[in-house]
Amino acid sequence: MKALQALLRLRGTYIGIIAAVMFQLIFFSVWLTAYDGVLDRTGNLAIGIVNEDRKADMIAEEIKGNMPFQTKQFSTVAQALEQMNAKEVSMVIHIPDLFMSALTTGDQPSIQYWINQANATSSKTMMEQVAAELTNKLNAQVSLQQKAAAAGAIEQQLSQLPVEPPVALAIGEAFESFTKTIQPEPINKVINKTNAVDQFSANLVPLMVIISSFVGAMVMIMQINEAAGAIRTFHSKWGLFFGRQVINVAVAFLLPLLTIGLMKLFDVASGESFLPIYLFQGVMFLSFLLFAQVFVYVFGNYGMVFNILALSLQLVTSGVLVARELLPSGYHALASFLPATYGADGYYTIVFGGNEGALFTNIGPLLLIAGVALLVTAGAVFLHRDRKSVSVNESSLVMEP
Hints:
This protein is α/β, with parallel strands linked by helices. It has helices at 2-8, 11-34, 57-65, 77-85, 99-104, 121-159, 165-179, 205-231, 237-265, 274-299, 303-317, 329-334, 339-352, 358-383, and strands at 46-51, 70-74, 91-95, 110-116, 188-194. The chain is 63% helix and 7% strand. A five-stranded mixed sheet has the order 2-1-3-4-5, sandwiched between helices. 31% of the residues are buried.
């Protein structure tokens, strides 16, 4: 009981209990508000349409009318795919040339759907479902139109001929038998999955890296803060500040070697070369470290609560689980200020490819976030009182080997 009483007198005990409670409160609050009404915001997503057959304008308009998304018209497939790789559209629908001619001659033309696999799993699944539903609707409409057109043509011809009623009845029965031979699915769908990878586990890499990197940064910052607190009476606040930043930089640019090695070990292939991956991963982890340490410098151990909030927000807004366009406007706007947004985008490029230069494009915002976080931290250090003292023996606080 004495040990229990001693533990209950320590502030750290209550900080741990508060952390457990806050994890529940924050994750429930953030995730359930962020993902509430996701399907009501599908209109924020965009798809591209390429119509190469001028006679199929009616089909193209039918596609637009049946789409719950925004639509963008492109003149070529290459142009549309470029925009899809840039994440401007989530899917490209291609109506090829001579599409209507194939329908009228009884052939089975194809509508091609291009879906970028370097996207949130929910978005990819949604696009495949929409492609299937759209093709089914078009097939039902075209099949009815073909039957109606054939019936009208036969009736017109019969009305112009002196046909006896029994003969007309026989012709009608023959026509009915003929209409049954009309294909119920006159249009074929072809789904092209761009930037696809063979391993299902590769889909989890962006999420896994975001979680492991930021949680690792949180824990590292907290432990170094504890260590720095133990020796702060022996060193100036600025000396400890610069020392901690050296450790941050060193760890940030050593960790990518482990990450790249693990990707090789588990056969997670990438079309990017070693140097861009190394630089991107180093800058990403550095931004996580500097971002996480802001709250610890400003709020001390209670900063852990804010880091739990930051973790939850970044998992929601990074786009690895649900596309950012489907989130409420507040969460969507917040994503631009969080490092995981750019980390996830970069890792989709590392694992899936398709967006050349995306790694270096995302390094810029990560450096900006890291720089702002470092300035805020330096401001907090400036406002803190220096507790340096030479009256205590520092060696008494150092662990024996």
